[in-house]
Design a protein that fits this description.
This protein has 337 residues and is mainly beta. The protein has two domains: 139 residues, no CATH class; 132 residues, Glucose Permease (Domain IIA), CATH 2.70.70.10. It contains four helices and 23 strands. The strands form five sheets. Strands 12, 15, 16, 17, 18, 19, 20, 21, 22 and 23 form a ten-stranded antiparallel β-sheet that branches. Strands 4-10-9-6-7 form a five-stranded mixed β-sheet. Strands 3-5-8 form a three-stranded antiparallel β-sheet, with no helix packed on it. Bound molecules: zinc ion. Zinc ion binds next to strand 15.
């Protein structure tokens, strides 16, 4: 079984009970019932018990906060709450619910086995209920990521000349500027693969880049996206609807690349394109062609790299941003809980 498919199955089965079937209906929070108390007394958190399989079974939280029942390290949790509430992960603000009350919480590859989700009041507004009583404990399955090794030219591993360093620096500035832009969601949370082809390298693999000469140092990093092996010239499609934050034919590491903001903190990045037809500021629908695949940037051959960045929209400096596993987005059913 390919690791990518394994990751997908893990997510599918993990989300099957609470995420892949019917959405959890959401009703406005009641301050006198459910998890809240007018006296502000503490309500016991949702209980966590181990199933015979060893997978933690988590009791769904009660209104005013409903979340996916389980998740995967490097994946994400979907929660439904009051619109515009700030959502916390293990005590830290990480997301803001959209106008429909839907929030996405990205998880790091080292997320502990239980993710504790809570709420904080919306900025500049009184809380509509006692947020201290809202809590959901979500079981997080561990990842098993592989290792891989690549041989490539020094200039593909890191900038070697002043000209390359300047190219890399300008590329970083363009990306940082683009990622300051935030748009409301353009659609639901359903995603498709950006190209039809074999997934050749999963998210999360630890990669060592070995130089093909002795004139530079190698480098080890985590593969922060999903690779699809397709020949140069294959159409690259928008994985979901959104707004193009950046479309550039020549970023240093990414090559021809398109960044799409899907809302709720999620940004797709399509890399190594031979032709970029999308333009910065375009609104795109799911499946819309963005350009053609290629082998530009830091690559060993033609493929589409799909990265999925989770942005912590409660943080102004992007310090809480994470790369998350796109295969999780493929296997969660349209944002249902
Ligand atoms: Zn890749």
């Amino acid at each position: 079984m390919k690791p990518t498919i394994l990751a997908g199955l893990l997510v599918c089965s993990a989300l099957g009970g609470g995420c892949a079937s019917s959405p959890v209906p959401f009703s406005p929070p009641q301050t006198s019932a459910g998890a809240s108390s007018s006296q502000g007394e503490r309500v016991p958190p949702a209980s966590t018990e181990a199933e015979p399989s060893g997978r933690p079974a988590v009791t769904a939280s009660r209104s005013p906060l409903e979340c996916s029942q389980t998740a995967l390290q490097g994946g994400y949790i979907v929660c439904r709450t009051h619109p515009l509430m700030v959502v916390t992960l293990d005590g830290d603000p990480v997301a803001r619910a959209d106008a429909q009350g839907l929030a996405v919480i990205g998880l790091s590859r080292s997320q502990p086995p239980t993710a504790v989700i809570g709420l904080a009041p919306p900025l500049d507004e009184p809380a509509p209920f006692d947020v201290r009583t809202a809590r959901a404990d979500v079981g997080v399955s561990p990842r098993t990521d592989g290792v891989s090794r690549f041989t490539m030219a020094c200039g593909k591993i890191a900038p070697q000349t002043a000209e390359e360093a300047r190219h890399a620096e300008v590329s970083e500035e363009k990306k940082a500027e683009a990622l300051k832009e935030v748009f409301p969601p353009s659609g639901d949370l359903s995603f498709i693969l950006p190209a039809k082809g074999r997934t050749s390298s999963p998210f999360g693999a630890v990669r060592t880049y070995v130089p093909d000469t002795s004139s530079c140092q190698g480098r080890t990093s985590v593969h922060n996206g999903l690779d699809i092996a397709v020949p140069t010239g294959t159409e690259v499609l928008a994985p979901a609807a959104g707004v193009v934050l950046l479309a550039d034919p020549d970023l240093y590491f990414e090559g021809g690349a398109v960044f799409i903001d899907h809302g709720r903190g999620l940004v797709s990045v399509l890399m190594h394109m031979s032709r970029v037809d999308a333009r910065t500021g375009d609104r795109v629908v799911q499946g819309q062609p963005l350009g053609l695949s290629g082998a530009t940037g830091r690559v060993t051959g033609p493929h589409v790299h799909w990265g999925l960045k989770f942005r912590n929209l409660t943080s102004a400096d992007r310090s809480g941003d994470l790369w998350i596993d796109p295969s999780v987005a493929l296997s969660s059913a349209g944002g249902s809980l």
